[in-house]
Specification:
- The chain is α/β, with parallel strands linked by helices.
- Among the domains are: 8-103, Nucleic acid-binding proteins (OB fold (Dihydrolipoamide Acetyltransferase, E2P), Beta Barrel); 132-263, Response regulator (Rossmann fold, 3-Layer(aba) Sandwich); 354-395, no CATH class.
- The protein is 43% helix and 22% strand.
- The protein has 12 helices and 13 strands.
- The protein has a 5-stranded mixed barrel. A 5-stranded parallel β-sheet has the order 7-6-8-9-10, with helices on both faces.
- α4 (149-161) links the parallel β6 (139-144) and β7.
- It is elongated, with a radius of gyration of 56 Å.
Length: 402
Amino acid sequence: MELRALSVSEVNSYIKKCLNTDPILSGITVQGEITNYKPHSSGHVYFSLKDSCSRLRCIMFRDYAVRLSFAPAEGMKVLAKGSISVYERDGQYQLYVREISQDGLGELYQAFELLKKNLEKKGYFDDNKKKKLPFMPERIGVVTSAKGAAVRDIITTIKRRFDKTKIYVFNSLVQGDSAPEQICGGIEYFNYKEPVDVIIIGRGGGSIEELWAFNDERVAQAIYRSHIPVVSAVGHQTDFTIADFVADMRAPTPTAAGELVVPELKQVSERLDEACHRMGAAVERNIRLNRIKLKSIRDSYGFRQPCDRILQLKQRLDEEQERLKRAFAVYRHNVKMDLGKKVAKLDSLSPLSVLERGYAVVMEAGSKKTVKSVMQVEKDSKLDLRFKDGVVNVGVLRVKRR
C-alpha cells in the first residue's frame, strides 16, 4: 500500500512531537560557549552555543531571561538547561533555554570582578596617580617570555620606529602558578637593578586561564608601586586584565605597545624641521617688526625736534603762572571785600558806636559791671558814667522806681 505524501508542515510537526516526547531532550543541559548573543526589545534573548565542532541555536523567552543573576556575554562558557524542540516555520530545531549558569570560568569571572572592585576602592585605577610616559625614552624594559611572539613584535616595532632606543628583556613566565611572582620580579628588577625609562609587561592572546597571571593582586601591587611608568600589553584588543586598569597606559596589543612608548624617528625629524622653520620664521618676523618700530621712532616729530617739546612746555608754564597770578589777585580782592563787610557789621554792633551818638553806659563805681535796671541802684550809691571820651563819677540823690 502506497503511503500518501506529507506536507512540509506535517513533517515538521511530526518531528516536533518526536522531540517533545523524548525523555532526554525534554530536560537537557548543554555545555558550550555563547556566540551571536542578541537581546530583543521584546525581552526574549537569541543566541547560539558552540564548541570546537558544532553550533546549536538557542532561545530564552522573557519570563526566564528576567531571572538571570548575571549578564551573559559573547565568548562566555555556560551550562544551558532546557528542552530541544522544532521551530516549525523554519524547520530548525533549537534549544529552548530555561536556566543558564556559568561553567567553570564563572568562579574566575567572580574573582576578577571582586579584585577589580577592591583595587578600585584603594585608588589603584585613579587617573591622577598615573605617570606620564617619556616622549623619547633611551632605555625600555620588557617583562615577558623571551620565547613568545609578543617580545618579537615589541622589539621589531620599537626598532622600526626608533632604532636608537636600547631594549632590555626580562625573561618571565606569562602563564601558570609561577608567572605572577616572576612578572613582579621583572618590574622590581627594572626599578632597582637595571633602571629604564619605561616598562612594558605583556604577552600574546589566549584564553582567560592563560591570561590569569595578569589578574593577580601581586602583579597589580607591583605595577602600582613602580616608580617607572608601566605599559600593559596583554592579549588582544578585546582582552582586559587587572594589569590593564592599574598600568599607566594600556596597549591593546604588544605591537601597539611598541608604537606607544617610542615616537617614529621620521615623525621626530619632521617635527624638529617644522619647529626650526617656525622658530626661524618667528625670529625674522620679530626682526621685521622691530625694524618698523625703530623706523617709526626715528621718523617721529619728537625724535627729530626734541627741544621743541621742551620749549612748548616752558611757554605753557609761563601761561599757567600768569593765570595763577590773576586768579590769586581776584581771590585776594574778594577776601578783602568780604572782610570789609564783616568789619562794618561788627562796628555797627559795637557799644562804642552807640557812645558816639551821645549815649553813656552806667556802671557800678569802681567796677566794670553794667547797671541795667533801676532796681540795682540805691540812694547815696556811687556810679560811673562812661562816655565816648571819658568817665564821670556821680552820686545818687534820689531813686524813682515805677
